[in-house]
Specification:
The complex is a heterodimer of chains A (122) and B (680). Chain A has 122 residues and is an alpha/beta fold. Chain A is built from five helices and five strands; from the N terminus they run E-H-E-H-E-H-E-H-E-H. Chain B has 680 residues and is α+β, with helices and mostly antiparallel strands. Classes of the chains: A alpha/beta (122), B alpha+beta (680).
Chain lengths: 122, 680
Amino acid sequence: MNRLLIVDDSLVMRSRIARLCASGAVGGIEIAGQAANGLEAIEVARRITPDCVTMDLTMPEMDGEACIAELAGLLPEARILVVSALSDKATALRAIKKGAHGFVHKPFSDAQLAAALKELMQ
Amino acid sequence: MNSATGLLGKYRDLVIAIALFLVLDLGVLLFNFYASGRIEADTSKINASGELRMYSQQLAKALLTLAQELRDGMPIQTSQAQISESHANFRKALAELARRDGRDDAIAQWLSREALANEADLLRRIETYWQPLDGTVVPLLGKENPEAIDVEIAVTKVVARNIKLMQLANDLTQHLETEAVATAGRLRSIQITAILLALVNFAFIVFKFVRALRRSDRVAEVAHEETDEILATLREGLFLLNADGSIGSQRSLSLDNLFGRPVRTGERLSDTLAALVEPDTAAVAADYVELLFKDRIKAGLLDQLNPLSEVAVRGEGEDGRQRRHLSFAFDQVRKDNKVAALLVTVHDVSEQVRLRSELAGAEEQLRRDVDLLLAVLDRDPGLVAAFLVSAEEKIELMNADLQQVEPEASAYAGMIDRLFRHTHAIKGEAATLGFGTVAREAHAFEDRLVPLRRSGNISGKELIPLAVALSGLREQLERLRGVYDKASNFARPAQGLDPVLRQIERLTRHVAQDLDKQVRFEAVAAHLPVLPESLATLLREAVPQLVRNAVAHGIESAEERLRAGKPAEGRVRVEVERQAGDILAVSVWDDGRGICADSLRRQLVDSGRKSTEEAARMSERDLFALLFEPGFSTAATANPHAGRGVGLDVLRELVARLGARLKIATVPNSYTRFTLLVKA
């Protein structure tokens, strides 16, 4: 069972991802924790050591890019999926360079996110 | 396993030759060893054979001395010791000669069977002579007082046999020496042959090796040539990007064309891109290439993020040519599961980009046309037609203005003001009617006018781009006109003015055809569900006449129009509008030659109806009134539609009958408009 940490400043977005995972559409995944910004994400990740993370980029306190860099150092085994409305290639490449393993653009369909999560866990 | 077999298969001859060479070398070496042993053995035999002769002589001499000493009663110890020594040495030498080691083996047998037989024969004969002697001497050995008789017998035997023994030993020595020389010669021949064979073998190896090397060189060369040829003819740009970011030596020639300059081996791709694409793109591309070399990242993930999948070439397209677009594709080349290099393919995708943008443009245009059509259908057709007419008129005026060359800058300022007013009016009306495309284009044109209006100091040069910009607005209006015309073609229930106007249009076409003129008929009519009788009469009796006149007198021939800078096709327009105070206005307008007051004056003078002075004194109003007098015609020759001097006089009667009013507005070479006003 892969343990997932959901990082997004929008409660709606967090609930949507959580609901999708709970529905069994992805399989082999359970929600281990949620965080509303980068700082909180680091703190939660320290505590629960997730296997995978969905990461928003635009967030208060600490943004997603900085958080990815931190997490990559903290939990090198954790796989990070960027879920962001920023759709330009440069942003995605920067995130991957910092340690992200995949990305999904908002708005996304359930099928798109499920496929990206499956791909992430492979 | 396969490759090992293959290797042996490929180099089999070479391997066998080298093995043979080694065997030969080893054989020569072993044979040398054998030969040296053999020579040593031969030497020791020759020595032994010599000794045989010497000890035989010594024994004989010692026995004779012993016999003499016995006879003389002298001490015999010394001679007895000499007998023992020479007897022992003789036997030792004989034993040495009888030893067969190193001389009796297969090789020796093969080398010198006959010689060995002779040698054995000689030895046997020596033994035969020696045995009786040996038997006689042995009892004497060590005896303190040997019997004289025994010694005499021994002396007799030794004297009798010594000569023969010495002769036989001599023969043996000679035989051995001869044989040793012959054997050495034979051995040398064998050695030389073996060395020669080894040399031949070596030469064969060298030849074989060099040939194989040259063959593989040739194969490599051909492969290289083929690669070069492929790279030279490939239309795509192709190169290997090394892990250090440098461009490899093998690349397609077309790359130079695609990059617009020669590419050097070892040149860094980041430098190439810095000159080729916008700085932002080049920076993102550097990140991208760096990630492609990371083994942990899935290639599939990066495929979608390629910032160079379609990139515009920098600094192009300013000279009016289309800007080039390139597409870079990167494929990881893995060695031992590590990304060792990237195979980069470059395509020129300018054509695809152009087609796509054209398609997008066409789609956008279509969408706008549909929007326009919906807007047109949604509006009162009369209003749309009225807008079109007035806007087109304004465009014509503006265009005419822009063609003018004004002598003074201040005049340009006035012109800009006029252009601005017209544009603004078009914009306002278009916006009200929901014709966004026209309103936007008008707005854009206004934007161009604003700075000119402010600057105050305008030259004719600055108007040239305005004329071009104005064509954009004209184009949008033409589109609207096209959409409107198409929409008007939809059959609508015959009501109000439509049937009458259609009749007039048919008449216009008929007259134009008869007179071989190109005329476009336009009708702008207010919405009138019920046609008042007065208006119906005008449309039935007056308008056809006016339209006929417009085509016959107003509209020039196509050539004449073109000479005057007008479109070949003339326009005749009928407008029906409701004015304040229940007044209905019907007008017939044409963009023909207009009515020239001076030529009317000349006509009056030429026909003798007025003197030059009288004609000059007449006002325009009076002159135009003449048109309505019976028998007056401006046409030079009569035809079915003009020149008989009937027509407008009929109109005058009609106007009088209906209590209507008639107005004429005309500008020479521009237009004529007859307007009839009647109470509804």
